[in-house]
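assembly run, all chains below
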Amino acid sequence: MHKIIAFIGLLILAILLPQFSSAYVLGILVLAGVYVILVLGLNVCLGFAGQISAAQAAFWGIGAYTSAIINMRLGLSFWVGFPLAIVITGLVGLGLAIPTIKLKGFYLAMATIGFQQICFLVFVNWRPVTMGVDGIPNIQRPSIGGYLLRSDRSFYYFLLIWVLIAIIFSLRLEKSKLGRAMKALRDNQLAAEAMGIDTNKVKCIAFMISAAMSGAAGSLYAHFARYISPDLFVFSTSTLIISMLIIGGSGSVAGAILGAILLVALPESLRFLNNYYMVIYGLGTVLIVIFMPKGLAGLIGRIIEKLKFFLEHGRGREKVNE
Amino acid sequence: MSDTVLKTEKLTKDFGGLRAVNELDMEIKKGEIHALIGPNGSGKSTTLNLLSGIYLPTEGDICFKDEKINTLPVFQRTELGIGRTFQNIRLFDTLTVFDNILVGRHTKLSTNFFQQIMKTKALREEEEENREKILGLCKTVGLLGREHLLANGLPYGDRRMLEIARALAGNPSLLLLDEPFAGMSPTDADRLVEIIQEIGNAGTTILLVEHHMRVVMKLSHNISVLNFGVKIAGGTPEEIKNNQNVIEAYLGKEG
Amino acid sequence: MFSMATQLFINGLAIGAIYAMVGLGIALIFRAVQAVNFAQGEFVVFGGFFAITFFSTIGLPVWLSIICGVLATMIMGYIFQRLVYVPLQRSTSITIVVATMGVSIALTDSSRIIWGAAPRLFPEILGSTVIAIGDLYVVPQNLVILVAALILFITQYILFERTFLGMQMQAVAQDKETAALMGIKVNRMIAITFLYSSGLAAIAGILVAPITYIWSTMGSGLVQKAFVATIVGGFGSVPGAILGGLFVGVVETLCGGFISSTYQDAFAFIILIIVLIVRPMGFFGEETMDKA
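ok done. output:
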């Protein structure tokens, strides 16, 4: 299957690339990995379940701050902060989902925007806990059984494991009963209810998983960068994550990965674009929505289908002529 | 445990000032194919929506297998064994035929989330079992061999069939069909009549809301007739055919 | 204490009038095409920037710069409608949200590329000396905003309720098919709605520019407040957008003054979340039902 080949190829690339990369490129690879997890998280909520969330950056921040505070201000290790970040952020996601359960489409988007903005203001203004605009410095790198992940390269491989876990989780979720229930909810909520699906519960779970994954990404980011401040966790980051998913292909795990990697790598690799990349993302989102609703992953999928068809039938014609 | 699968008592639904369903008494016994007919706007679809839980009754009771279900949410009624199709076809367009029916099987899937994620043996066994059942349903409605196609691209008649297969996947004891013959070609309609008879013979109780009289007369054991939300007649097809009130409701009073 | 409250109240009314104008544009577009416009804030920004360009760079007198700024923004609104809304006519709510978010991102950065990242200023119409009325100090521009808003809303009321054009626009908003059957040129009415909404946004930008300056990223914050205003007032309702805007402006300013100025921006969103949970249809909105 072409998907498995592509995946293994990408994996080999992901393992080998850091060996030849400068520190600068390595930083970008780590950032790409973090965004892959973020976009995979949004894919559960928006891609699978069809629930729009413009609060992904806020959840990212909650995870980051939770982990950072536990490590830097309480002195506990990453291995306490990381799971707690996931659980707490997940619970906050659930806390947002429950009161907004009846909201759809635009109204839900607005509720998540409201939540995002309030979170940002809390990050900035709750100085005793978050240290406000100064941010939280001196967050420690994780250590595994005594071995401290001091170098960026070692952290990268550590992150890669979590990225793979997120990918496998997303794929398994997609094929599971819950994943199908989410897609049913997305496609036709009323019919989903009639099939015995508790759509309210599925919505809440989708939000919770999405938030938890963002929380994980937050903790990982905080322990890599060793410093966090509020200006990362803003509304425009949330819309950036949405753009990544849409351009990559909403609803598709491959699309989420593609979108994240592409939109992180693009401004860095095409220098002349550097000043214009936001315009390109914005326009890209609009164009994809209008012309390619399945995103780039959908486009690539269609091209591969056409190639397969051509190869099979091309060969058939040869046989007839013999 | 009585013979009655569904019973409504003085079932009433108001929308603001409009009384769409007015003190409806209806009783359906196990294995029966019961038709609900009436001119446009008589309250048939509203009744179906009340039974499946999309609307809540203003007054009156709905009893499913001797249990009052008036305020039960939609998904819980499905868990109890009520399945339905929709007048405006509601398929999961981005899913395949197979997956659409598999969603219909939602209430019968017993593996938990952990088993699903970790792909345990129990899951694989359940998936095999489901696969057989779903392919069987595909065969019944004539979709065998096309289960990998997206629901989106299917022709109209097949979309209706898919909805029925999906509703059957949950092994409902009561199947609510909302105008399944609407827009059907004669060939498809004949096939659907056979399918409904097959389902009925297998022991499923069916409530059919329909306009096509020929089909109603052919299929149903009993008929309830609504007009302006009120039940004006009930009985066998023969009785209904000759009922003066029914004729007047459809054709208007003479002179 | 009382005078501080009154002071804040007047300031709140002024910013509320701005929210109301932006919200009005959003509400009108929604009524016309049943879709939201997340890029409305960028039209405010472009309106302000256009006027500033006509005034500072081209050297037109203030009044002409304002008119040209509004017209330029209207043209932009027309192009926007043709390129984005027409292809997405039959799309879902989420699709439009995402698409207009994309436009918003693109326009925000475009304005930065064109006019730079620094905030730009447009001159005040009545000068900058603060007017003292008893204990109150009124910034003259706030007065201009309030008067302009009043004139605008009254003119709009007359336009919508008393002219044939207004009747046609209302008919299209309520039921396109019937309106078309009655001979109303539906597409033209929709285009006019977009032109008008963009014009409103431009006026809002020009009015607020002397006080807060115009900078490229101010659009998203503004449009979010405007959305809060329309939701609180009742989404899709014209009086709702106006009253919602004034309400949000006043509450936000009063709370900012008396409770906490650092969290001032949060109050609008707290109101939003409360309204969405308790009464999503707002004051003037109607409940909609999902049918089988």
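Residues 199-225 of chain A form the longest helix (27 residues).

The radius of gyration of chain A is 21 Å.

not gonna interpret more than that til we talk
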